[in-house]
Amino acid sequence: MSGKIIPAIPFVMSILLLILSANLYSQGSAGNDATIETRYIIDQPTAGILRGHTSALDMEFYQQGGLLLGLSVGLFDRLMLGISYGATGLIGADHTDWNPLPGIALKVRILDETNMLPAFALGFDSQGKESYLSDASRYTIKSPGFFLTASKNYQAFGFLGFHGGISYSLEHADGDEDPNIFAGVEKTIGPFASILAEYSLGWNDSDHDARGRGRGYLNTGIAVSAWNGVTLKLFLKDLFRNQQDISVGNRVFSVDFVNPL
After folding, report:
1. CATH number of the domain bearing residue 76
2. CA 130 → CA 28, 142, 167, 244, distances in Å?
3. Nearest Cα to 147, choosing from 100, 105, 95, 188?
4. Are 30 and 185 within 8 A, CB to CB?
5. What is the pLDDT of residues 188-219, one digit of tens each?
6. pLDDT tens track for 46-82
């Protein structure tokens, strides 16, 4: 048994216990009736935050039998902490490759949204997305690292939200140490659904031995508030085929559980 499996067991077990014992009373994060702020567009962070005394469990299923579990807690109305851990090959008959370290996230809301100004948040997130590439010491999609992000919502046949920011990942063993700029949009469709799109310039994944080809990352998706506290998401990622092994778009499924502590 791999040594990486041992520290993973208590983390996975605690997450499963949380699912079984969760009291899911709040509305989801999609649609006109959403009461939970969107914390990520798709891969990139927003200025959205969990309010105090609220927890979130995120489960993301990705290629090659991968699963990423994340637990976030709103300590105060302006401060959120999170931890995540995952593996490739967890589902199926292939060898399981655990991520080398848990991901750590911290987000601070520095300014709430007003009629004139967007909300702003500062933070750090070491969790990349999808498989960890040991030979390159990075995730397939690099983690945001340090980031500053802004979000603004408007009423337009429901709600129309715009997000954008700048980030600096600490994953630069491939020699690419550039910052990254990203932007996204979120449009509600009826009371329970939203469509999402984001574009990352991918400046931190285009030089030296990086995997990107300078096209940036275009991701789209749909989110549905399935029932109280639960949001289901389906994403199509890297539609510009920035990475050479993407053909039609990488399909990712995600489930978010949010509940009061």
Report:
1. 2.40.160.40
2. 24, 9, 19, 15
3. 105
4. no
5. 999 999 999 999 999 999 887 888 888 999 99
6. 999 999 999 999 999 998 889 999 999 999 999 999 9
3-state secondary structure 85-127: EEEECCCCCCCCEECCCCEEEEEEEEECCCCCCCEEEEEEECC
State the Cα–Cα distance between residues 62 and 70, nearest whole angstrom: 14
Residue 136 one-letter amino acid? A
Helix, strand, coil percentages (3-state) for the chain, rounded to 5, are 10, 50, 45
- Write out the residue range of the structural domain in which residue 69 sits: 5-260
Secondary structure class of 191 (helix, strand, coil) = coil
**CA–CA separation, 88 and 57 (whole Å):** 19
Bridge-partner residues for 222, per DSSP? 195, 234
For 88-120, the pLDDT digits (tens) are 988 777 788 999 999 999 999 999 999 999 999
| Separation of alpha carbons 253 and 245, rounded Å | 19
Both tokens of 204, joined, read 């931190």
Which residues, at least 6 apart from 13, have a Cβ–Cβ distance to it below 8 Å?
none
Under DSSP, is residue 258 helix (H, G, I), strand (E, B) or coil?
strand
Joined tokens for residue 207 = 């030089």
Rounded Cα distance, 122 and 44, in Å: 13
Structurally, the chain folds into a number of domains equal to 1
Rg (CA), the chain: 18
Query: Which of these, 183, 190, 245, lies nearest to 28 by C-alpha position?
Result: 190
**Do 8 and 88 contact (CB within 8 A), yes or no?**
no
Q: Mark out the alpha helices in the chain (DSSP H runs).
A: 5-21
- In one-letter notation, the amino acid at residue 210 is A
